[in-house]
Amino acid sequence: MTVAGNKALIIDDEIDIVEILHSWLEELGYESDSANDVDSAIRLLKGVQYSVIICDLKMPGKSGGDLMKFILENDPLLIERFILMTGTIVDDDMEDDLRSYGARILKKPFMLAEMKAVISSLTSD
Fold first, then answer.
1. Contact 6, 30 (CB under 8 A)
2. In this predicted model, what pLDDT tens digit does every residue of 8-40 receive, in sequence order?
3. Helix axes 112-124, 15-27, angle to 10 degrees
4. Domain residue spans in the chain?
5. pLDDT tens across 72-81, in order?
6. Is the pTM of this model over 0.90?
7. Looking at the domain 2-124, which fold is it?
8. Which pLDDT score is estimated for 101?
C-alpha cells in the first residue's frame, strides 16, 4: 500500500461539492482523489493510505455511515483521519454516536476556515 503524506480522499455524489473541496484542499497543500460512492472509495482506500478522508453522510446507495463501518472493521486507525460532512439535520444523540466512533463532523454549508480547523484537529489529537 502506498502511504501518502498530504493526500486526501473526497467522497460525495455531488460533483460541485467535490470540485470545491478539491480547490480548498489544494489551497491547504493537499492532493486529492475523489469517489462518488462508497464502493469506489473502498477501492481507492485499498491502494492508498490517505492522510485525510472527507465523506458525505447521505448518498444514494451506501452512506458515509456505511463507509465508517467498513473502516472500523478493516482499518480502525484510519477513523482518526475521517471527516463526515452532512447537510442533514443530525440530532444530538446521532452526533454523539458518530463522534464516539471517532469521526469529526462538518455541517454543510461550511467555510474553508471550518474545514481547515477540522483537518488541523486530525493531527493535534
1. yes
2. 999 999 999 999 999 999 998 999 999 999 999
3. 60
4. 2-124
5. 999 988 888 9
6. no
7. Rossmann fold (3.40.50)
8. 65
